[in-house]
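Hi Y.,

Following your request, here is the sequence exactly as I used it, all 483 residues.
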Amino acid sequence: MSALDLAQISDCLRRIRDQQCRRRVNIQDLPSPVLGHILSFCDPASRYNAAQASTCFSTALAEIEISNPASDINDNMLSLDGLPSDVLLTLFKYLDRPSLGSVAQVCSRFRDISYSDCLWIEASRKALASNQLDAASRARCQETLSARDKVRLGKAWIQGDTLESLVAVQNTKFMPRLQLEAKRLWVAWGNRIWCHPRLPDGGIAKTTSRMLRGHSDDVSKFVVSDGMVVSGGQDRSLCAWNANSGEFLFARRYCHGGEISAVDVTARGAVLITGSRDKNVLVWNIREDPDRDALLPVPVHRTCVEDRVWSVAANDMGLLAVGTAGTKGVPPLRLYDLASGTNVLDMGTELKNGAGMLDMAWLSSSTFLACGYDTFTRLWDTRCRTYVRSWEEPFDESVYCLATDKVNCLVTGTARHGRVRIWDMRSSGFLYMKHASPARRGQSSPVYSMAMDAANLYVALDQSLNHFGFSGQDHKRQRRRRF
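Below is the corresponding structure, written out as tokens. Let me know if you'd prefer a different format.
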């Protein structure tokens, strides 16, 4: 046995004796692959310090850097972004809106998943004014919104986060009326009806696309429905035009003994209803005149409601609601069968004298909203034969007009200071109020008419037309247009 063999045996025995004396295993005794995996969880600064502290650490780091590129060290580790999209959708459903917004800022994949409609659809159905559940309200919108956009706009409606702009100004005081379509806003100033094209952000174009003439006196009420513009005026005339081409369709002069104060269209444009100060309601059928190749309104029946007529509204079930002045013991709301003209129900007999109904809107086949002189807006139910909800104007002012999404949002316009009040019909109190800007500072005007869609509210005062945008887009300030 040589001296070299004796030295190797002595060194081996010494190592065995040292291992037996140790009570626990040190991290430096771990294999290099295990050390490399542990160090892969450290940041670069910690790895550098470990390599300087011990040669075993530097050796382990050198091995993993050779076997794996720096970007692939964590490839075999479980991470959140490695989960399938359907699993992430299930996880994200448990997050509240602020947390979902934070997750959307992590990466583009998380943003796309967090913007998915399935995460927002339930909240979008409850969104104020922007839910687009009603077909007629949805048809007035410029686009079909995603579920997330509905929630965003609903929050803006609740908080009153809006931008106001003055669209048009008049030199003369009128009682303007509004009608809204997806691409057009119709405004009646005096004896003319103007058509304003709508801009993509909800604003109104400076120029008008057409102007409708046919009345010799101011237009009291008009309706845009089924491709027709039908109007009644103080000259006791009923006129109609084609909404797309502006072609004059027909006119019936002196069909009432007084001003035509209410107009409605039903049965897909085949039936017209007019109400007047002469206490009569006329139902018309639209027929084709073969001799002149034109449309001809033919009166079907005339009904006396025993008081001045302020508003009329027909539903899809053939029920006609008539709002009267409510004086001399006449009920403020009278319901008639549209086909026969017979009175089927009187409502509001318990209200005070003079509680006339100035504006109405059907929400369903059995419920409708009505507002008027007694400062209340009420939800009436024909099945209960009375009102089931009411919202009172706090400042004791008459409510001239209303607008609604027919689901949960109610907007009322009052008799003074251009005051517009926003209500959530699921609660009894109002959310907030806005004052539409008058044509000149210091003026006080009633709100004569309003129109709304999911992202916009249009308000007509005696000399100005105002736009409230809830989308957050600050479109260019439009110059005041004088007609």
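The two ends are 121 Å apart (CA to CA).

Thanks again,
Q.
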